[in-house]
Amino acid sequence: MTQVAINESGNILVLDHNREQFRFHAVWLRDNAWDTETRSPSNGQRLIALRDIDPKVQISAAAVEGTTLKITFSPENKDVDYSIDWLIANAYDRPRVSEKGWLADSIETWDAMLNENVPSADFNHIASDPSAKRAWLESVARYGFGKLSGGPAEDQALMKVVQLFGFVRETNYGRHFEVRTEVNPTNLAFTGLGLQAHTDNPYRDPVPTIQVLYCLESSAAGGENMVVDGFKAAMRLKNENSAWFDVLSRYCAKFEYAGEKGVALTSRRPMIELAPDGELIAVRFNNRSAAAITDVPFEDMALYYEAYRRLGEIIDDTAMEVTFRLEPGECFIVDNTRVLHARKAYSGTGSRWLQGCYADKDGLLSTLASLQSSVQEAAE
């Protein structure tokens, strides 16, 4: 049962749907009209600007017909049809989450218990079956990382992985980079040392949001890969001491990298980043690339370092880590705004050769949304 009403001034519409009530402003409804004069039928982009809408726009009439809401706007005397389902899905008259650090329902945090169920798939399967690719990308979006096996053990095979969902992001390291022992390396990642769990390139703005690491050789002892859910670590810190969470989200850390001639990268961002409404949207943690912290006032610096130290201890806790070994033809991808990755030290005998590259999460999420939309359209 759906009913509609208009307030006396005509600037608010009230929609009663399945015993829930939603209010919409006239200007919002007019701005979100989907008629062919307002939106391009071919790409859905707006054909008008807000300046083209009368600032005193009102609703002069509204009626429900089946699953459609019909509205007449004045002073244009313009009729527009709306899908009621679309209006409910996009309703903004809802209770707001006020707690800092909230997460979207599509995100699931994890710890070492996920070792029993690492989100994995076969490369050839997801390359040939859209439904399998959709399921794998859904897991990557939910957990922030995913593993692939069965790929070719050949130079730059990782490019084929990126082509499954997006585009390579080129950096000063090139379109891809080698991860193996080098003499006089420009980065600690290219040695046999173990690495603390970290997010990559926090000194970039914007930071690469997807990283791919692809194994080509793996006969050296050790070198297991580890991942840690930065969102889980941040929420654990918050539960232990909300002041620690607040100080790391309130002030910017500074990150820098100048390990190559002609390169001097710097960025200022909080280690725990929140959206204006308190949503937890990113974690940046990389001790190797941390510069002097200067954005924290004197009276909060001691607390900041307490929080920084404790966050590092949580990240280092083995109860937080998922560990796996990559064999030739296997790879994993991580959401670099959320999941920290690391590796254990490996020996000087044998060989260990991985290739890595960066991509961006918008491509992955776009591919996923397109696949989900295709499934929905087929069901209809």
From TrEMBL:
SUPFAM superfamilies: Clavaminate synthase-like
Coiled coil, from the record: none
InterPro entries: AlphaKG_dependent_hydroxylases (IPR050411), GBBH-like_N (IPR010376), GBBH-like_N_sf (IPR038492), TauD-like_sf (IPR042098), TauD/TfdA-like (IPR003819)
Domain of life of the native organism: Bacteria
Keyword Metal-binding: yes
Cofactor requirements of the protein: L-ascorbate; Fe(2+)
Keywords associated with the record: Dioxygenase, Iron, Metal-binding, Oxidoreductase
Single annotated GO MF: metal ion binding
Enzyme class, spelled out: oxidoreductase
EC numbers for this chain: 1.14.11.8
Gene3D superfamilies documented for this protein: 3.30.2020.30, Clavaminate synthase-like
Organism this protein belongs to: Roseibium album
GO terms classed as biological process: carnitine biosynthetic process
Annotated catalysed reactions: N(6),N(6),N(6)-trimethyl-L-lysine + 2-oxoglutarate + O2 = (3S)-3-hydroxy-N(6),N(6),N(6)-trimethyl-L-lysine + succinate + CO2
Protein name: trimethyllysine dioxygenase
Positions of the Gamma-butyrobetaine hydroxylase-like N-terminal domain: 10-87
Stretches assigned to the TauD/TfdA-like domain: 121-358
Matching PANTHER family: GAMMA-BUTYROBETAINE HYDROXYLASE-RELATED (PTHR10696), TRIMETHYLLYSINE DIOXYGENASE, MITOCHONDRIAL (PTHR10696:SF51)
